[in-house]
Amino acid sequence: xxxxxxxxxxxxxxxxxxxxxxxxxxxxxxxxxxxxxxxxxxxxxxxxxxxxxxxxxxxxxxxxxxxxxxxxxxxxxxxxxxxxxxxxxxxxxxxxxxxxxxxxxxxxxxxxxxxxxxxxxxxxxxxxxxxxxxxxxxxxxxxxxxxxxxxxxxxxxxxxxxxxxxxxxxxxxxxxxxxxxxxxxxxxxxxxxxxxxxxxxxxxxxxxxxxxxxxxxxxxxxxxxxxxxxxxxxxxxxxxxxxxxxxxxxxxxxxxxxxxxxxxxxxxxxxxxxxxxxxxxxxxxxxxxxxxxxxxxxxxxxxxxxxxxxx
Length: 311
Ligand code: CUA
Description:
Blueprint: H1 17-50, H2 57-90, E1 97-104, E2 107-113, E3 121-124, E4 127-130, E5 135-140, E6 146-149, E7 157-159, E8 165-169, E9 175-181, E10 193-199, H3 201-212, H4 222-230, E11 260-261, E12 266-267, H5 270-278, H6 280-283, H7 297-308
Parallel strand pairs: 1-5, 4-10
Antiparallel strand pairs: 1-2, 2-3, 5-8, 6-7, 6-9, 9-10, 11-12
Helix pairs in contact: 1-2, 4-7, 5-7
The site of dinuclear copper ion (CUA) has 9 residues, from loops.
């Protein structure tokens, strides 16, 4: 059980302001629950072992009044006040950077919208944030309800079709964490995660500038690019700088530099790319992408090599 208290996906090791507030609330509630648990069991033991004989009716009535009415009202009012007092911190307004995150079936569309008026940067299945700054996540979904949850950074929030919900996070330390979908959304709900990388500001700026560039596959991968386009991949995926301009699936412009594949479920290497292209149905049941098992091995390998090189 204790192994669940740490790691990249733990709400008990907060790396964000909001997560710290949530942890404070949890610890306060936990302490209250422990005290009440001890009191209730102490009373039960007292009644069964220490003083099992019948009590006078007046004593019983007094016990019910104090223990059954006054105590819960006072305790619950105290815990409620404690919880409500923390709420303004959780609903604070955002900062400079906005990131639109859309829950798709079953991956994440991520669009960075810098405050300086620069063009948005489209990515997928990975979130990068600058440390020590408030970031406003604008959440929505085109079809079903998802819920975005990065336990180390903050509480979860639903992504509701037709409505934009806002989650404000302020990471307090750098590192790599993990986010998940916390609302059942279909067959591959459990296969919908993403790495969250908190970087210092300079590192974040350099990263986003690099994402602005079109894809730069080296000349040796021209054949892979041609096969990628011939197989029709560009109908669903975008690779900026090429003819691939699809918007149905994840943007693949810099897919080679991502920390994982398939929304946080596979290591990003060539063999995973090959498996994904050949048999996506086995890896992500119900995904919209068709499997390309009919392509010759050499062609799949060439496409995988091309994608791997898109850094
Ligand atoms: Cu998306 Cu569960």
